[in-house]
Prior knowledge:
The chain is an alpha/beta fold. Helices cover about 25% and strands about 30% of the residues. The protein has three domains: about 180 residues, FAD/NAD(P)-binding domain, CATH 3.50.50.60; about 120 residues, FAD/NAD(P)-binding domain (3-Layer(bba) Sandwich); about 140 residues, FAD/NAD(P)-binding domain. The longest helix has 17 residues.
Amino acid sequence: MTHLLAVGGSDAGIAAALRARELDPSTDVTVVLADEFPNFSICGIPYWVSGDVATEASLAHRTRADLEAAGMTVRSSTWASAVDVDRRRLSVTGAAGDEEIAYDELLIGTGAEPVRPAGVPFGEPGIHLLHTMTDAEQVVAALELLPAGSRVAVVGAGYIGLEMTEGLVARGFDTTLIQRGPEVLSTLDPELGSLVTAEVRRHGATVLTGSTVTGITPAGGGQWCVATSSTSGDAEGTFALVVVCVGVRPVTDLAVAAGAQLGQAGAIVVDASMRTGVPHVWAAGDCVVTHHRLLGTTWLPLGTTAHKQGRVAGENMLGGSKVFAGSVGTQVVKVFDLVAARTGLRQHETAPLKVSPLTRVTVADDHKRYYPGAVPLTISVTGDQTTGRLLGAQIVGQRTAEISKRIDTFATALHAELTLDDVIDLDLSYTPPLGSPWDAVQVAAQGWERAAANQAAGNQTAGNQTAVIA
Length: 470
């Protein structure tokens, strides 16, 4: 009987364990995790904080009982400290003290940890990170002690920061969002990010863009003084609670000690089969480098990617030959009544490629205007002027507009290496309440083609103008 051991009870580790059990129900699978939350949705944390998700337990993709019923042993509150590669033993510390667990194949799925900016007094009451379920419990407990209307700050306007801002506003807190970049959601071009910034402000939150936090110090009475610096000068604000969400970095100590190599962004180097190069040691998820279908090897921590990589590893640990097909970086987020999504590359991100990039922004209705409720979609398309190949897309629009469907259309086209002309030729669904004979993604592709033709004809500004198309 093969014994598979996975370190990490989130997306990659659980996906590997489930796949192995699916392929061979006789496989002995043990999952070791440092906390008490196996297979919980970290992406769902802001919605529990906001109250949209009623209970913490609802965030479990599967309960412990579900995992055990699937045939795996779950060792929670157990810390993995070292790998004896020659003897195939993992040293752990748990409720029973120090011990070793034998394995035939080992998966390291240690994920990522939040960046902790210097000068922030983490560990003090009222200063919080938001990355794990334990973090979420602490934030919820702190918020429940604050009266409605209390001033709270969120540092960092990425996906988690924006979702937290929405949740805090929904709970009645006077919320300030602090962002270093010129607009929130720096994964979008500023032209589209500005739409999201305006949406956050429209719902009553204060948004400080172009602002860097220079210090957080006690202000007395359980309050914190947050100092910021921007081109318009220095400023200070006083808050009862501060949540810091400024990115993550891969957790690699266990893998490095076992002999694994590090690559982009300090993530673990793996091949397309999720092998580390260390005998019988595999790795997957946010702790490893990512094969990007356009860029090659990069680091792109996403839950969807971790699930796929874990599934590949689980199959190959049993002797399979599965390969990770690669990511194109597809992402989507809801911000109040807007949805913002992207896939592929923005124009400046194409620099490593041998392409001649052109970006065109088009505004198109989500469905036929004569049917009530039509709303505009702002769609940015980047393509290669030489070959016409699609390189990336971004969409911002109302939540009702099926934006995730449309970004997935672009993502599928990227995966298949389609040109913009191919996108125009796609046989997409149509009914007046949901779309148009030419779907909005095709209208955007047509806009890009016209811009490319104008550019080729010598109109040097056409590719950067916004076309408003009914």
